[in-house]
Amino acid sequence: MADRNRHVLVLGAGPGGLACAHKLVEYGYKVTVLEKESFVGGLSRTLIRGDFRFDFGGHRWFTKNKSLHDWFLRLMEGQLVEVERISRILFNGKYFDYPISIKNVLQTAGLWTSFLCVIDYGLNTLSMALKKRKIETMEDAFVSQFGRRLFDMFFRRYSEKVWGRPCSQMSSDWVSQRSKGLSIWTALTNALLKPKDKKAKTLIETFVYPRWGYQEIPETMRRVIEKAGNRVVTSAFVKKVDVSDPSKVVVTYDKDGKSETVTGDYVVSTVPLTSFLTYALEPKPPQAVLDAAKSLEFRSVITVNLMLDTPQMTKDTWIYCHDEGLGFARLHEPRNWSPDMAPKGKSSVVLEYFCTKGDEVWNKPEAEMVEWGKRDLCRLGFVKPEQILGGFTERAANAYPVYSLGYLDKLKRMRDHIEQLDRVAIVGRGGTFRYNNADHSIEMGLVTAQMINGEVTKAAVLDINTDLEYHEKDMVEAGLKDGELVRPTVTGGAAKS
Which helix H or strand E contains 30, and what residues bound it? Predict the structure, then answer.
């Protein structure tokens, strides 16, 4: 067992960093969390305007790890609602269910189009088997799972909106992480062999959600950490992480215009890995590691958050918008996740515009982005201009690690350097340059705490979220017992009475 008198420094107060600190506090360690923003939660932020609440993009909680789910239920006891998931794809003015339903495709696209999709999938599968083609790009992976026709219908446009480049220039790893095992075959078996037992669901249909917004999760962890006498320091910009002394770690940060230092025995970083290596870590990594870090990039996102004078705009939790004429790629309506996210009789919507920091979209002023969002939303016919009460934007520069071709070799070089540092660990989506959901990052944080406590190795941390299977496949609802969820429950976008 490790020495619990040690002081651990955690850089970043997102879900992963706070989960690590939370677990270390449970063990009895001293912890200091340094967060550059004035708030905790990172991308899991809830924005408040009057009586309206907006998550920065839609975040739902789900995990196939029962022990993690039980931990979450204990953490958030009394704060959760259960939500029925309704997600759709908007393609050429028509709505399709997501995950893809064969019955819905037949009804919406028509029998002939559906027949062509199935034949195309079969021919493509046969061709790949005969030619033994390697799957290297995002396009290869999607086509192998769905055929080219469905790829063009449901995946190409959206993916290219999100990543800002052709699918032929992206690694297949993203598809393996996000949709491996989801295919026409999965959709068929799910439709034809759907189990009668409602608790055994092959594609998750419900999820739990904090009734006041997703930021309640990091805020709850923060309260536990501070109640135990530890510090969560916000508006603290980390400038240097000095690991030159093998017996300690010294972190220098700016706070309120002053430079401060804190010394610890271990550092856990959720800082974007590229930035951590290039500007913060001392001694500087070898040039090959720096070159690798400088060559990788993150995709950015701007949310346009609109207040609406309508009780409900849609029934959906998400709508993935593939139409090329729309600027945003996805929308969600917060009140469909929890009625408490909007005042009675009103609603709201969050539109996600993907971009790269410094490009034309990123540089648009807030007023222009809000007007763009209004035009896009009205074009869909959900609301009229006079029903939009106002809006604002929020931005994140390092939202999505870009899995460009060849990224994995560069990432390995970077992680190998971290691996040899005895007093350094990396956690989270940005910290590990891995497309994590919040549950993955939280699990990483908890396992990192176990590693510091001598229970597991570093390898156990980076094994999280590496299963090459669709992350909702064979999801079993575990640990949801009567009385553990707060009512009212949201179903189909409407609260049960």
Answer: strand 30-34
Radius of gyration of the chain (CA): 23
CATH fold of the domain at 7-45+67-77+211-296+404-462 = FAD/NAD(P)-binding domain (3.50.50)
* Torsions phi, psi for 367 (to 5 deg): -60, -40
Q: Over the stretch 243-269, which tens digit does the pLDDT of each residue have? A: 999 999 999 999 999 999 999 999 999
- Write out the H or E segment, with its range, that includes residue 125: helix 111-131
Contact between 343 and 290 under an 8 Å Cβ cutoff? The reply is no
Q: Is the dihedral of CA 445, 218, 398, 261 positive or negative?
A: negative
The tokens describing 496, both together, are 């049960």
Residue 307 near residue 345, CB atoms below 8 Å: no
Q: Is the pLDDT reported for residue 272 higher than 50?
A: yes
* CA dist., res. 233 & res. 253, Å (int): 11
The structure tokens listed for 264 are: 């610890």
Q: What is the distance between the alpha carbons of residues 385 and 79, in angstroms, rounded to a whole number? A: 35
CATH 3.50.50.60 domain range(s) in the chain = 7-45+67-77+211-296+404-462
- What is the pTM (predicted TM-score) of this model? 0.87
Average per-residue pLDDT in the chain?
86
Strand-pairing partners, residue 91, are 94
